[in-house]
Design a protein that fits this description.
396 residues; alpha/beta; four-stranded parallel β-sheet; 20% strand; binds 3-[(4S)-2,5-dioxoimidazolidin-4-yl]propanoic acid; binds fe (iii) ion
Length: 396
């Protein structure tokens, strides 16, 4: 039995539905799981103790929505937008997602891993122990599989749990222009079957938007996911309202993500199905969106809110969960407490994971220790990383 004690901590357990769940004391770890929080029970005398001098412990962060694996970058498009072009105009002119697709197809699996590693390391440096990574920049069966193999490799190269999503329904590639249904029939659906057979997929995602896939087309992808027994999630109501969130809820989705244009009916549908609202302030900020997601309605309806970086080359080149937390407060008016819940307890729920997200006996011992006094300090500073230590008892 491998036992250790992290002593003299201020612990934000994030266990209660509201509040930080603050406890002063120690955390006991046994075989990679949390054994106790607070007072050491009898039988733990003499176990090796590490003194943390009153620092703050929180659950390790969980980035539940990223596109971390991709080729190249879109700095040129950033310049174009500053010269006046909109995101949708660039996408319709063959730029946008499709330009990242060309760069992603050109890279080997090894090169994709090498390009993603610095981004992953930036997340780990801010206390992330679990990261979701989507496909969606390959858009052929082989290139989508290549992306997910690269994502799985990242989880072997670093002490992090990688959770993958099949996002072939992200954009229609140039060779299928005007033939979206054929793209679904020839790439998205059979590719999903192959990826599942190779155990590369943990969930199925889609981009429900005027420049991407309609609700009816997404429903076909979700039906296939159900047939394979895979959970679903959806990029919904990001640039316009198409009813994607309600569609996702009707399929029992783990999460609906973005949600700037979500309406009251969508909120009610998500509340009824227990679907998590994943808010992505990095994309809102970078695209200079002006309509914020309906945070007040989500709160009133009791929809759990998660926050993520959405790290991607086009709409959110953000690899900082702490900055995402700050943006969620300043731009969406979430409280610091809600943003930490959004990167821990509710992010775990958005991934369908019940063994992480809070510091409670039985959970995996994935703990971030910060050089701060108050938990609100995590969301408060801008461009400052107070991580003292990431204790990942699950992989140690
Ligand atoms: N919504 C987004 O914001 C990203 N994907 C999506 O479905 C954008 C991806 C990109 O522009 O490369
Ligand atoms: Fe996204």
């Amino acid at each position: 039995m491998a036992r250790r004690v992290l002593d003299t901590l201020r612990i934000a357990t994030m266990a209660p539905a509201a509040g930080w769940g603050l406890v002063d004391g120690a955390i006991g770890i046994e075989d990679g799981r949390i054994a106790f929080v607070g007072e050491a029970p009898d039988g733990w005398r003499g176990v090796e103790r590490e003194d943390f001098a009153g620092r703050l412990a929180t659950p390790a962060l969980i980035d539940c929505h990223t596109h971390l694996v991709f080729g190249g970058n879109r700095a040129r498009e950033f310049e174009m937008r500053l010269e006046g072009a909109t995101y949708e105009e660039i996408a319709r002119a063959g730029g946008g997602i499709v330009s990242t697709v060309a760069q992603t197809r050109a890279l080997s699996e090894d090169d994709l891993v090498a390009q993603a590693l610095p981004r992953l390391d930036a997340l780990l440096a801010e206390g992330v122990a679990t990261v979701e990574i989507k496909s969606g920049y390959g858009l052929t069966v082989e290139d989508e599989l290549k992306m997910l193999r690269a994502a799985r490799r990242l989880g072997e190269l670093r002490p992090v749990r990688v959770v993958t999503s099949w996002l072939a329904a992200h954009a229609v590639p140039a060779e299928y222009k005007g033939r979206t249904e054929t793209y679904l029939d020839e790439v998205v659906l059979p590719g999903l079957q192959e990826a599942d057979a190779e155990r590369l997929v943990d969930a199925v995602d889609g981009f429900c938007e005027g420049i991407a896939f309609s609700p009816g087309q997404i429903a076909r992808v979700f039906d296939k996911a159900r047939a394979l027994g895979l959970p679903v999630k959806l990029h919904a109501e990001q640039l316009s309202h198409l009813g994607g969130a309600a569609l996702a809820a009707s399929h029992g989705a783990l999460s609906a993500d973005h949600l700037e244009y979500l309406d009251a009916a969508g909120v009610a549908a998500m509340a009824a199905s227990g679907t998590v609202a994943v808010l992505l302030p990095g994309a809102y900020y970078f695209l200079r969106e002006t309509q914020a997601p309906p945070v007040k309605l989500l709160r009133e309806a009791g929809v759990p809110i998660a926050i993520a970086t959405d790290c991607n080359p086009g709409s959110s080149p953000l690899a900082s969960p702490l900055l995402a937390m700050n943006m969620a407060c300043t731009l969406f008016r979430l409280t610091p407490q809600e943003t930490l819940a959004g990167f821990t307890r509710n992010a775990a729920r958005a991934l369908g994971l019940s063994d992480i997200g809070t510091l409670e006996p039985g959970k995996r011992a994935e703990i971030a220790v910060w050089d701060v006094e108050e938990p609100a300090e995590l969301a408060y500073r801008i461009g400052f990383n107070p991580l003292f230590r990431l204790v990942n008892g699950s992989v140690a």
